[in-house]
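Teaching assistant here, posting this on the class forum so everyone can see the example we discussed in section. The complex has two components, and the goal was to see what a joint structure prediction looks like when all of them are supplied at once.
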Amino acid sequence: MDAVFKALADASRRELLDRLRAESGLTLGQLCERLAKAGSPMTRQAVSKHLAILEEANLVAAVKRGREKLHYLNPVPIHEIAERWIGKFERSRLQALSDLKKDLEAHDE
Amino acid sequence: MSKPSFVYVTYIRTTPEELWAALTDPRTIRRYWFGMSAESDFKAGSPWRLKLDDGRVADAGEILEADPPRRLVIRWRNEFRPELKAEGYSRCTMQIEMADYYPDFGGKAAKLTIRHEIEGEGGKFIEAVSGGWPKVLSNLKSLLETGDVAFKE
């Protein structure tokens, strides 16, 4: 989960996620084009470096198709964070607090 | 191979065999899929159906590939909402690999990748299933790691 927060703590990386949310399955080159079009150009090297950090945090999933590598926004870790800290409060505060405690303690090993 | 409409990935601290069992055992599926039950023997060529609590069929299709505990491909169409059914069959691929867990936890985990793709225009169907998957995957992860699910309803 540290990797997720670290990855999200950067405006350029959030911009990349926004572009992938708008359009799924982009190659590195297409991402660079979309960023330029959206008024926030980035060098190919910078995009490549940020993508690696996002992939490491599992916020971006990449699939190979032929010689191309397509990038997708993977919302699952963000959903897990919401479920851990927000979803439970919506349903039942007490249950949420006890689950959160259990969860945090279990991961504290 | 057509371009997947979405790709979802989750890492679960379990073995590929247990993850495969959770994806193919109707009683386990019921526990994390909001009361939906699957009907299939999960062998290549077999029919597959996902039924609502009240017995109505929500989705149906067939198992295209089954390679336990690594790869499951389902031909999948919504049967319940006419506007989604009209978009035709999609293809859902579930891939299981061993991988390193998130670096801050260390250790090994089973990596589950879900890809869903549809021929032609499948905007509404893809929107419907893409919203559901994160919740189902969250529940599945929580069930396998802690023995309970987060969302019951």
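For the discussion questions: DSSP finds four helices and seven strands in chain B. The helical segments of chain B are 16-24, 26-32, 82-85, 123-146. Think about how each of these relates to the inputs above.
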